[in-house]
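Write out the 3D structure for:
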Amino acid sequence: MTGIEVGAVSVVLIVVLIYAGLYVPVALGLVSFLGVWVLRGNIDMPINLLSLAVADTVLDYVFATIPLFAFMGLVVGKSGLGRDVYDVANSAFYRIRGGLGIATVAANAIFASITGSSIASATVFTRVAVPEMRRFDYTRQFSVGVVAGSSVLGMLIPPSAMLIIYAIVAEQSVGHMFIAGILPGVVLSIAYGILILGLAYAAPRLVGGRSPAELREEGWEALTFAEMVVKLAPVIVLVFVVLGGIYTGWVTPVEAGAAGSLVAMIIAVLRRRLSPRALWEVMVDTGHITAIIMFLIITASMYSRMLGVAALPTTFAAWLETLHLGFTGLMIVYVLLLILLGTIIDTASIILIVVPLFLPAVETFGGDLVWFGIVTVVGAEIGLLTPPLGLSCFAIKSALGDPSITLFDIFSGAFPFAVTMLMVLILVIAFPSLSLILVY
């Protein structure tokens, strides 16, 4: 078999194995190892490449951001800041029709800026926001749909684990990726707010909810400004330490992760939410998350090296040029592929499998790789809201513990938000400055 044939078969085989249920890094590593073995005809070459992949991953300084930000996000979850942020957002938006939905989006956006995890956001706000919205007569579909849709902000608004993984794969600055995610994250949050307002006025039965007058009659009272400041103060401090430190250049992303973890621990201890047992659980969970992501990156590095040996990326880029698609056509094909793969595999896997194939083509057309990373993350995240995989939707279902709310309710409720994400993605592609104006 030629290198092109081996490379093409390997890509198809990886997707088939993942869809069949094989663990993603195992599929990547196994197919990559066998591919190099077939191409070189001896087992020494794939063993050497695997050793290099492990060494490069372990020694990469940037990788230290992953356990640090994971630890910080888990500690923040233990400290109860998610509920505080939601209480503040609810008090700010309760006068608006569909206000609890907008409050959930706003709270998720703020929470994302200190955790960087969509699954963490989905889990926290399922337990915080859904019961509140149901208590005030919002429909099942709308309640879970808002949480599912807004949870994906955790993958876009920095610090984001997916932006870190993309930065490692594409050899880009983590700091630049974080900065590039700000405006698209804000635009997506605003688009969600507009969507909720539109649904509340155009389809009130779909949304449900009670008016501000009805809330006051029941004795519900909004927080005072002073109470809102007190509840938001820890979040503001964390955002200032982590994101402020990175954007001002005072600290590197790795140092920001360490500083944020320390501040998060101090906040949790002061709130008496971090017992020795809770700290141990956080450390164990951090180890699990780090090990999983490291395994993914090691096997993805092996996969990239196998593709290089097969010369598939350069050949694929040359083939795309012969199609005369142009840059716009290339991006249409890429987005469709992201959405298709997003229905069967998670965002990290999509980044690790697809990005190495398309990077040479994007560079040939003069596309900016930082902007391309934002496009990749937003496009892949649409899959978090679409069946059959829809990781955020499944996370919400498992966190609910309510048999009356089905997966169909969650997916149908999330559908308008997935469409809104696609519209924002088109906007980011059409206007690259949305993601680059703060970077350069």
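The chain has one domain: 3-436.
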